[in-house]
Amino acid sequence: MSLLAIGTLGYDDVETIHEQRTGLLGGSAVHFAVAAAPYGTVRLVSVVGQDWHAADSRLLEARGVDLAGLEVAEGKTFRWGGRYEANWNKRHTLFTELNVLETFQPKLPVAYRDSRFVFLANAHPAVQMAGLAQVEQPRFVVADTMNLWINIARPELDTLLKRVDGVILNDEEASMLTGEANLIRAARAVLSLGPRYVILKKGEHGAFIMGPDAHFSLPAYPVTEVVDPTGAGDSFAGGFMGALARAGEPSAMNLRRAMLHGTVTASFCVEGFSVEGLTGRGLDDYQRRYDELREIVSI
Amino acid sequence: MSLLAIGTLGYDDVETIHEQRTGLLGGSAVHFAVAAAPYGTVRLVSVVGQDWHAADSRLLEARGVDLAGLEVAEGKTFRWGGRYEANWNKRHTLFTELNVLETFQPKLPVAYRDSRFVFLANAHPAVQMAGLAQVEQPRFVVADTMNLWINIARPELDTLLKRVDGVILNDEEASMLTGEANLIRAARAVLSLGPRYVILKKGEHGAFIMGPDAHFSLPAYPVTEVVDPTGAGDSFAGGFMGALARAGEPSAMNLRRAMLHGTVTASFCVEGFSVEGLTGRGLDDYQRRYDELREIVSI
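Above: the input entities. Below: the structure tokens describing the complete assembly.
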């Protein structure tokens, strides 16, 4: 079934303890779409500036990403810089240049309006709402958010949370949103805000989903060599939504399977800078690692 | 099958952000034995001083712990004090008084020598070896250790690791023992030191077992109210070894099931001070939480 992603395209500067890279293809929608595309076409709605490289559009299109919803605006593309400490869990944002994102309002091509599975990547919740409003009959909508919006746009975020099927948060965001340090209590408190499902990501410690018919928890795939964790969360969302859209029905079992798929795509993501760990990996690679992970968690 | 534990009995002073308790029944062998006893009798080898309370022996015996191997020595019982920070992961040891443990040499009653499943709780590896040497035909031996012995008794620890079937470590100990920060690489490096299996505990993030026929990983049971994490690791070991001894054969599937049992007993442990979360819980309670956990991880 059709999968739509509304989010960010940008260029990242990343420093790890091993290496420093600049101008990397990045942004939430890039990691999401590159992770999800092997499951089926991903319709993308985003904006870039005049410094956007045509080669990056070609890379996305070659992967199976539909760029009919990509706007090219006056100005510069979104840029982000970050530095990781040795243990990967500590990330320092060095700079954020919104550039063309500052005034971005998502405009869906007519052909996108029948999208059934929708991912609203991290953005101001009013922008996420404006994008979602253009989808005629969404079947399953998942939104991401971040600490900034929890702090400065809580009313709009509360409205959004009542309109989505699922929200995807990391441990810190879930605690900030609910005031609960214990993640199980935090997840339950998130559900009381409106969404049917909460997907709670714990980085290298795995993720769980909680909802009316689901409480499913699993560890991360055992990656032995992390290169760059940037985009792991969006890659998780890409694998999750891509697999779910391909399955067609967000049943309890398909949601569990989607959690494994998300774990697999996140594991490929962290093995390279930018999307280097994902490009060149197809459904066969995904399936091999899915089977391996399933064996590791089977009881 | 018969289960033997050689370890520490003591009294703990524990401070959490909510409460302060002194003179709590504690020690590695106490948490292990109280967790394991519902699966079948636990034979205990340990030492206490003259200040040991007869009521604590009665509590252990009522639980199904065989105290024929409990020595009462001149002097005071082992004592430990610790303080937890709000997030539970940070523990500060306030004092350690070895007392009668200082000169303890385990002496197995003749009736214990045919024990088949053996747990060597944290102690100097030479003491662990001396205890193990008195078991005639052990079927499955698991040892615990700690940073102190990795630092000051490495040759003896290396010898011990070649004689046991499994070693149980937390993330910090595994990294210290091997010099590997990545836990998968650390686990593989531990296996190269001799044991067939390594069981790696990650506290609230779960645990995994790795060995020739096993790589099984699972999250912690979703506890919503932690009271005191003291003894969680030894309670895990108790559930693991108790279930394995009851099953009789350390097959790949029984090892996986034992990991769930250990996760369940650890979850009961942290819900109370000392062994208060475990006492009063029987096999039925264990099984209910086992089934719940199994549902949470099933795919």
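Note for the figure: Chain A touches chain B through 29 residues (CB under 8 Å).
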